[in-house]
Specification:
five-stranded antiparallel sheet, alpha+beta, about 25% helix
Length: about 140
Amino acid sequence: MPNSNSQRTVSDTLAGFVRKITQDRVDAYAIASGDHNPIHLDEAYASTTQFGTRIAHGMLSLALVTEMLAAEFPFTWHDGGKLKVRFSAPVFPGETVETYGKITSIDDENGRLVATCTIGCKKPDGTDAVAGRATVPLE
């Protein structure tokens, strides 16, 4: 279990996790999100794109990051957490990705402590699929 929010300090590392992105996971995400773009689902179509094969939804990678944030800040993430991210590389079905995060500052914003964190989701070769910043109230 993560530290209570009141014990958080600058440079705390967030407990990321590793997940394999399977085609079944991509298919389930398509159903849940309503995003049935053939680049995610149709191998014949995807083979004609710049990627040469199917890719996972970028929002699926981001969902893993928000899962990490919700686990790390269970009482405050859903009460004012914010994200600013860039999608920088596709995740291919079969790849295993890892979420990560680190608190870079804690500031008083209108009487409420807010942590700023670098966050992301890395591909097996170490490149970021998603990277950016999260702000999370601590109290």
